[in-house]
Structure formats: structure tokens, C-alpha cells
Write a structure and sequence with these properties.
Blueprint lengths: L1 E5 L7 E6 L8 H8 L10 E5 L4 E6 L8 H17 L4 E4 L8 H12 L17 E5 L3 H26 L7 H14 L3 E6 L1 H6 L3 H7 L7 E8 L8 E11 L8 H4 L7 H15 L5 E11 L11 E3 L5 E3 L7 H11 L7 E6 L3 H7 L4 E5 L2 H13 L4 E3 L17 E2 L7 H10 L7 E5 L18 H11 L2
Parallel strand pairs: 1-6, 2-4, 2-5, 5-6, 9-10, 9-13, 12-16, 13-17, 14-15
Antiparallel strand pairs: 3-4, 7-8, 8-10, 11-12, 14-17
One zinc ion binds next to strand 9.
């Protein structure tokens, strides 16, 4: 999709006309549809109107004082579907009515709306929206915003692809290979990865135990992007890449298992961010470290009651083999100390409790550094990718106590997302750290389980905000 900013819209393209409820249109044929009540400009209501010379797509935004970012996305989705059904390949728009950062909001929503996942179907969707013109009085600045929004949304769509692919295709080797591809495509990105042998040598008793029940090899893959000054300490992103989570011997009920191909959503978000920042050629140093593992069942599987030794030295008694994400992450979080990070942010579909507390719309945010948490909250707001700060309530460490080991991997039934975050916090004391629990937001459980590509926008915005 080519998207250009122009001073004057091209008359030959179909034109999207955004309208609020109750607003009048200076385009006669649209005003006629409003007058006779065929079109009321309700949110996500779309009407194609043709005259001898023009084609307009009237797009309702609903009541002006009620417009939200979700509303804008719904309308743009509806517009895209209309364009598709009419096979319109060139379109022009004035997006000003979308409010603050209109260009960026429009482009991000449109590229997301154009996302399709048909690679496993014989019949492919052939429709392509080829060219979009956006009217602006400041063409150069608008073009920059377009490029930024396109790179973010394409990173997001890449993350969606990885999540939508089932685990029989997107296994740990597939994920490793994707990291290799990213490195091949970019001079400044280097891939370094650990095999199970390497992990054993480093004393990673937790991540290796999780992967033992799987026929797939486990990896920790580190994508090292040095686009900034040599002496600048890197930001390290750590992603949970559980390519499938059966629950292990503490098997999940089948209803909860089908979506567990997306339990690598944290890793997928890291890949999406790496793609976006390399496409944007950002002058930053970022390491994307992903723990690629499968939690499955076998005679070799780790068991409830086992005691594992982490690389950091703490021993962990297994209360539940389904709390595997924190085990894969804890060794990875220790390993990445070697990068001497400025900041570490992990992203993980870590707890079902997150879906209960914040639902599919909001990521849970935890951290051991107030300024870092504030920066992430600001980035979430700017990127329209909501996150909510939850407490690392120290008293709850009590819940993770074990009689026979330094800690247990589960904290009981209450405050499940907090105890999971507290578990991780025992391994992140050496650096400024934040944790995003995306069990809800990565899968968009609000409507139905659906890969969202979140929190790619939040993370890219955070990185942009760090560039002085
Ligand atoms: N991958 C799941 C968390 C999850 C659940 C993500 C639902 C997305 C949707 C995680 O590994 C898990 O199973 N966590 C357990 C922890 C419990 C055993 C302490 C959970 O949340 O039930
Ligand atoms: Zn699990
Ligand atoms: Zn999991």
C-alpha cells in the first residue's frame, strides 16, 4: 500500500468523507442521503455515493463528543471493507476530523484493517488497496507521520502473522528462522542464540525443564540491533515465546488450549518491534531476546513437586507446570544481564488472571522503577495502546514461599498476575525493569481470541521517546 501526503487531492480517486452525526455535507449527493435518512453518519456506518464524475465513501463517526480511538478504528475497518467489496484500489481522504495525530491514527488503523491471514487457505484474498492519498497542508511532516505509522502497523501485522500461525508450523525452529531472516535483512541487526546445550552449560535449570517434554528444541534468541552510539547502553526487550502451552502435566482443559498457539505473543511483539525499528532506522541500541520453548507432555516432562535450579542460583519448587512462562523468562532475564542493559522490559502472555482483571483491551504493567513505569504509561497513551499500572505488592512474596526450595512457581489463587510479576522481580534486581502481561491484550479476548499485534505500538513509542 502506497500512502502519500498531498496538498490537493486527486479527483480521479474515490474519496472518503468523514462525517459526524448531525453534520451537513457540502457534497450534494451525500447531503441528499442525509436528508432522506439513508445515511445518518452513525459510528462505522458507511455509504458509497456516486455521481457522474465522482465516487464518495461517506463514513460516519457518530456523535462528535463521543468519538474514541476504538470508534475511529471501527469506522476505518468498515471503510476498508467497503472499498474491498467495490474493488476500489485508489482512494483519497482528508482525515482532519479524526482529531489529534489524525494522519498517524488514520494510517495505523487502515494498515491494521487491511491485515489478512490467508496463507493457509487455497483461496487467497486478491484485493489490494494500492494507493492512498492524504490531504495535508504540511506535506513533509505528514509524510513522516505516514512512514512512522506504516512501520509501526506493519510491525504489528508481522506479530499477528506469527501469532496466527499454528504451532505445527510456527514451532521453535520456525521462530528462530524468522529471527535469522530479520538479521539477514538488516546490517545493523545481528543474531546470537543459545541452544539447549548452551543453556545447560550456563546452568539454566528452569527454561530447560520446561522444554524437556517437547519434541522441539528450545532456544534463547537474541536479536542485537545497534543503531545508536557504541557507548549507549541497550534497551533489552525479553519476550515469552511459548510456541504452544499445553499446561504440561498439569494439563489445561481443552477449552483453554486452542488459543495457546499464541502463547508466544510476547516474542511475536519483540519481532514486530525489531522489524519496526529497523525499518525506521532508529538511532537506538535494542536487544530483542526471546525464549522459544514448547510446554508439552512426555515421559521427560517436568513434574509438580520437582525442584529446579535457576541460572541465577535460586531454587524453584514446581507447584504447577502450567506456570511455565515465568520459568522460561527467569533464566532469560538473568542471561541478558550480560548486555549491561539501560532498561529491561519483558512482554509475556503470562497469566489468565490478567484476562479476568483487565480483559482484552488493556495490558498489565509492572515495574521496579517509577520513572520507567511513568514513561511506559505515557507511551501507552500516545500510541493508543492502553496499559494499566499494577502493584508489585511486596507482602505477596509470602505467597511464593516453598518449604523445600527458595520459592514456589505459583502463588495460590489470589492476585495471580501480581504474584507472577513478583516471581519475575526476584530475577531482575540488578537493573531497571518493567513487565507487560499481555495475556488479554495480545489475543483481544474482548470480542474473540484474535491476534492483535499488541503491544508493538506502545513499545515503539517508548523507544521513540528515548531518542533525545
Ligand atoms: N499462557 C498461560 C496464560 C494465559 C492464559 C495466556 C489465558 C492467555 C490466555 C500461562 O502459562 C498459564 O497457564 N498461567 C497459569 C498460571 C497458574 C497455573 C498459576 C494461569 O494463568 O492459569
Ligand atoms: Zn501455562
Ligand atoms: Zn503460558
Amino acid at each position: 500500500m502506497k500512502i502519500s501526503a498531498v496538498k490537493q487531492l486527486n479527483n480521479s480517486s474515490a474519496q472518503i468523507i468523514f462525517l459526524f452525526e448531525g453534520e451537513k455535507s457540502n457534497i450534494t449527493s451525500i447531503q441528499k442521503s442525509l436528508d432522506n435518512g439513508f445515511f445518518k453518519a452513525k459510528l462505522s456506518e458507511v455509504l458509497p455515493v456516486t455521481t457522474d464524475a465522482h465516487c464518495y465513501i461517506a463514513a460516519g463517526l457518530g456523535k462528535q463528543d463521543k468519538l474514541t480511538i476504538t470508534g475511529i478504528r471501527k469506522t476505518i475497518n468498515a471503510v476498508f471493507n467497503q472499498l474491498k467489496s467495490l474493488n476500489i484500489t485508489k482512494v483519497a481522504v482528508n482525515a482532519e476530523k479524526l482529531g489529534e495525530n489524525a494522519t498517524r491514527v488514520f494510517v495505523e488503523a487502515l494498515v491494521n484493517a487491511a491485515y489478512k491471514f490467508d496463507q493457509l487457505k487455497e483461496e487467497k484474498q486478491t484485493y489490494v488497496l494500492e494507493h492512498v492519498e492524504i490531504q495535508s497542508n504540511h506535506v513533509e511532516e505528514a509524510q513522516k507521520q505516514i512512514h512512522l505509522a506504516q512501520c509501526i502497523a506493519q510491525g504489528q501485522n508481522y506479530a499477528k502473522d506469527l501469532k496466527n500461525l499454528p504451532a505445527n508450523i510456527c514451532d521453535t525452529d520456525y521462530m528462530l528462522n524468522e529471527a535469522k531472516k530479520l538479521a539477514q535483512q538488516n546490517d545493523k541487526l545481528n543474531l546470537h542464540y543459545l541452544t539447549e546445550d548452551d543453556m545447560h552449560k550456563l546452568g539454566m535449570g528452569c527454561i530447560t525443564a520446561v522444554g524437556r517434554g517437547s519434541s522441539m528444541p528450545s532456544y534463547i534468541a537474541c536479536m542485537e540491533y545497534f543503531g545508536g552510539q557504541k557507548d549507549q547502553k541497550p534497551l533489552v526487550l525479553v519476550g515469552k515465546g511459548m510456541v504452544y502451552d499445553t499446561g504440561g502435566l498439569c494439563l489445561k482443559p481443552w477449552q483453554g488450549m486452542g488459543t495457546m498457539k499464541m502463547d508466544m505473543g510476547g516474542a511475536a511483539a519483540v519481532y514486530g518491534v525489531m522489524k519496526a525499528i529497523t525499518d525506521l532506522k532508529l538511532p537506538v541500541n535494542v536487544i530483542g531476546a526471546v525464549a522459544l520453548v514448547e510446554n508439552s507432555i512426555d515421559g521427560k516432562s517436568y513434574r509438580p513437586g520437582d525442584v529446579l535450579k535457576s541460572m541465577q542460583g535460586l531454587s524453584v519448587e514446581i507447584g504447577n507446570t502450567d506456570a511455565e512462562g515465568r520459568l522460561a523468562l527467569c533464566d532469560t532475564l538473568t542471561y541478558i544481564e550480560k548486555y549491561n542493559p539501560e532498561v529491561v522490559i519483558d512482554i509475556a502472555t503470562l497469566t489468565g488472571a490478567m484476562v479476568v482483571s483487565l480483559g482484552g483491551g488493556i495490558s498489565g504493567l509492572f515495574g521496579n522503577d517509577d520513572a520507567l513505569v511513568e514513561s511506559l504509561k505515557t507511551a501507552a497513551q500516545k500510541a493508543n495502546d492502553p496499559a494499566w499500572h499494577l502493584p508489585l505488592f511486596q507482602d505477596y512474596h509470602e505467597m511464593l514461599k516453598s518449604e523445600i526450595a527458595d520459592m514456589n512457581n505459583i502463588g495460590g489463587s489470589a492476585a495471580g498476575s501480581i504474584t507472577a510479576a513478583l516471581f519475575l522481580s526476584r530475577f531482575t534486581e540488578k537493573y531497571r525493569w518493567a513487565h507487560l502481561d499481555t495475556a488479554g491484550s495480545a489475543m483481544g479476548t474482548f470480542e474473540k481470541a484474535n491476534a492483535t499485534g499488541r503491544p508493538v505500538p506502545l513499545l515503539v513509542q517508548y523507544i521513540l521517546d528515548q531518542i533525545k
